[in-house]
Amino acid sequence: MPLNINFQQIFLHLFNFVLLFAILYFLLYNPVKQFMSKREEYFKNLDDQAKEKLSDAEKVKAEYDSRLKAVETEINDERAKAHKELDNSLAIRKQQAEDEASKIISDAKATARREKEKMMKEAQGEIADMVATAAEKIISAGNTSDAFDQFLAAAQRGDNNE
Amino acid sequence: MRYSCGLFIVRRCNDFIMDNKKRKISIIVFAVLALAMLVGTIIVKSPGHHGSISVLMRDAVLHEVNKISLFGLIDVNPGLIAAFSVTGIFLVFALIVRIFVIPRFTIVPGKFQIVLETLVGYFDNLAKTNSPHRNKFLGAYVFTAGCYIAVSTLFELFGFQAITTHGESISLPAPLADINAAIMMGCLSYLVIMSGGFAENGFKGILKTLKDFSLPISMSFRIFGALLSGALVTELVYHYMALSYGLPVIVGVLFTLLHALIQAYVLTMLTSMFYGEVSEPAHEHE
Fold this sequence. Notes:
The complex is a heterodimer. Chain A has one domain (2-161). Chain A is 94% helix and 0% strand. Chain A is built from two helices and no strands. Chain B is mainly α. Chain B has two domains: 1-45; 48-285, no CATH class. In chain B, 74% of the residues lie in helices and 4% in strands. Chain B is built from ten helices and four strands; from the N terminus they run ααββαααββααααα. In chain B, strands 1-2 form a two-stranded antiparallel sheet. Chain B is globular. The model of chain B has no long low-confidence stretch (mean pLDDT 83). Chain A binds chain B through residues 3-6, 8-10, 12-14, 16-17, 19-21, 23-25, 27-33, 35-36, 39, 42, and chain B through 61-64, 70, 74, 76-77, 80, 83-84, 86-87, 90-91, 94-95, 97-98, 102, 105, 107, 116-117, 120-121, 124, 139-141, 143-144, 147-148, 175, 178-181, 183-185, 187-188.
């Protein structure tokens, strides 16, 4: 054979290499690769967990944002409601005050009317007394026609005063 | 302040004096050792070379003279003994690593763990990038082939001795400097490529591999030529004593290191590329 190629030795070399392949594969390559895969998986899990936590946090954040918005809307609604209630209350109170004022005024008017009537009655009584007194005086003085004229004049004045 | 400055200067001077002393001692020790080696090479007689350099070189290529008995069964080339020795070294190393190192692997790796993981990761990645569809077996194969080529090439640097059938002591060469080992490596790589093609595309894959029929020859003789040339140059340098000082550091060590890395890279890269090419699914290629 050229270059002293020896098939027996080629096969021996092949046997040696196959043996080496088995040794390196089972003792070195596979265990190291398995460890690397495990570590990769470990870090992938960590990454997944971190991503999951991040997404959870984002969800919670979104939830809180929506809650905050809801609370803000609620606050605005409540504020509007409170404003409305306040307006209503003010209107009611105003109405009540107006009613009270009108009642006071009407009461005052009634009281004034009553006072006036009372005063008129008293005045009429006084006038009647005065007329009676005057009539007595005139009668006692004997001048009946004059007295009668005076009485009429006094009665007329009393009507005009009313 | 002045006192501390003075102290600092004194310390620096002392350090400089100590450094100078250490440097002088180192130079003297180195010179004495070099002289001792020189005297030793002159006093101790060389065993002498049988025949001329051309005979030695012819034997390095053809392995006609120096044979080693394999357990008394057959006479084999020294390269085969070197190959078995490399496998033995790997076996011991792998066993130690498997028993004592791998069970202590940590999530945050230590220095040795980084080396192992980088090595495995490199070949695994090489297989995955060149053959994305089918790479589990390829990764293991290129890892073994790469480690074997690199370590077996470096093996010759240690100069392990073996006794030939003539009773002479010879230094074991790199296994792949033996044509039989190189042919085995090239042909096996070709068969691996073919198996990848067959596994993915059936007979079409085999035909695709047969298209590159020159591949086993080119791969075999590339490795053989590269390693043999290294061995011949080293042999040539060591044959003459005048060339044996300083030069072997460059020729012997650096060239061998480069050979080891380059040949390991070339063969694994070629195998991965061709494997990826033939194991590509046919429908995807269309």
